[in-house]
Design brief:
With 363 residues, the protein is an alpha+beta fold. Helix content is 33%, strand content 23%. The protein has two domains: 198 residues, 2-Layer Sandwich (Ribosomal Protein S5, domain 2); 147 residues, GHMP kinase, C-terminal domain (Alpha-Beta Plaits, 2-Layer Sandwich), CATH 3.30.70. The strands form three sheets. Strands 1, 4, 5, 6, 7, 8, 9 and 14 form an eight-stranded mixed beta sheet that branches. Helix 2 crosses helix 3 and helix 5 packs antiparallel against helix 6. Bound molecules: ligand DP6. The site of ligand DP6 has 17 residues, from helix 4.
């Protein structure tokens, strides 16, 4: 397994003047949540997620070598969103380049055009930072591989996830599929704070092709950025207990993935979602990201599950949208339930059907 120092290249064996790459990277939905971090994007606790399949960012990176005289003058890039210049995305990219420069020493030698688009509606309240940073990291790794053709596949993917993490923590879980762990966990071999790794143990048939229907409850801008939210876990009265709980829940999931017990899965997943929001409600300053319709949906899911015994559950991100999770074999019934009873709580009746996927793809 690689350490951060292994990701600092000493020299490259090849050169390249210009070219372009294109990658898609999916979003992911955390089961055990990442909420709280230390310096350098090191998570306060380990997290685990399902990689999604349909919600993704597609990013094209065009690069051309600058004149040598200009090559020391900082980063040079244009940022296009859906083909049009997007100035307000640039500071985020600039910050990302600064954070990864030590690991990609060629960055100032090139001018880049980064052309990016999402498969899900912009301002749907679905965070594009995970898929976006992952897609960008994949492209930079493709360029580094041109400079160092001997690079192994393991190095390529681990470093891509490492770079994505420096852009946005959860992005490191969007490089690979289907179930990804990020953060040190004693009982998970190979797990590390530095990058996401595929969950290395048995996953029961019950969890294959697990479905995630994302109900768009509130598409407004986030009231609280996740950076601010993570910060509020410093000096939070319940932080230490929460971080310990994340480890406990991850251990529970190891057993659940092996034995296929969906009832136990539901308990862990829903508790994680509510705990995430409980942390927000008990920080100083405190805030509530759920909306009335978020609660309507949660209650409707609980009622439906009670009455039908169909194992459908929910999870939440740092927002009002609800991810409805269910096994593939009950998909038709759950979709009908969503249509009949949940769509009324969605903004403009909007929802997105997704499922577990395989990670980033070179296009
Ligand atoms: C609630 O990855 O967006 O979605 O590292 O500051 O970019 P930064 O945070 P980010 O936080 C995601 C938090 C979460 C839970 C999760 O995905 O684990």
């Amino acid at each position: 397994m690689y350490s951060a120092a292994d990701f600092i290249p000493t020299s490259y064996t090849s050169t390249i003047e210009n070219g372009n790459f294109e990658w898609s990277a999916p979003s992911n939905i955390a089961l055990v949540k990442y909420w709280g971090k230390k310096d350098n994007q090191i998570p306060a606790n380990p997290s685990i997620s399902f990689t999604l399949n349909n919600c993704k960012t597609i990013t094209k990176l065009a690069f051309s070598k600058k004149d040598t005289s200009a090559s020391t003058n900082g980063f040079s890039f244009d940022l296009l969103f859906e083909g049009k210049p997007k100035e307000d995305f640039k500071p985020k990219i600039q910050k990302f380049l600064e954070r990864v420069e030590a690991y990609l020493p060629f960055l100032k030698d090139y001018h880049f055009t980064i052309d990016t688009q999402n498969t899900f509606p912009h301002s749907s309240g679905i965070a594009s930072s995970a898929s976006g940073m992952a897609a960008l990291a994949m492209n930079f790794m493709s360029l580094e591989k041109k400079l160092n053709p001997e690079m192994t596949e393991d190095y390529f993917y681990q470093k891509a996830s490492f770079l994505a993490r420096l852009g946005s923590g959860s992005a490191c879980r969007s490089v690979k599929g289907n179930v990804v762990v990020w953060g040190n966990q004693a009982n998970i071999e190979g797990s590390t704070d530095l990058f996401g790794v595929e969950f290395p143990y048995t996953i029961h048939e019950n969890f294959k092709n697990y479905q995630d229907t994302i109900l768009l409850v509130d598409k407004g801008e986030k009231q609280v950025s996740s950076t601010v939210g993570h910060d509020l876990m410093h000096n939070h009265p319940y932080a230490e207990r929460r971080f310990a709980q994340a480890h406990e829940n991850l251990d529970k999931l190891i057993a659940i993935f092996e034995n296929g017990n969906i009832d136990e899965f539901i308990k862990v997943i829903e508790s994680e979602a509510l705990t995430l929001h409980a942390m927000m409600m008990t920080s100083m300053p405190y805030f509530i990201l759920m909306k009335p319709n978020t609660l309507q949906i949660i209650n409707a899911i609980w009622k439906f599950r009670n009455e039908t015994q169909i194992p459908v559950c929910f999870t939440l991100d740092a927002g009002a949208n609800v991810h409805v999770l269910y096994p593939e074999n009950v998909a038709a019934k759950v979709r009908q339930f969503i249509q009949d009873e949940l769509v009324v709580f969605c903004q403009n009746s909007q929802y997105i059907c997704d499922e577990i996927g395989n990670g980033a793809i070179a296009l």
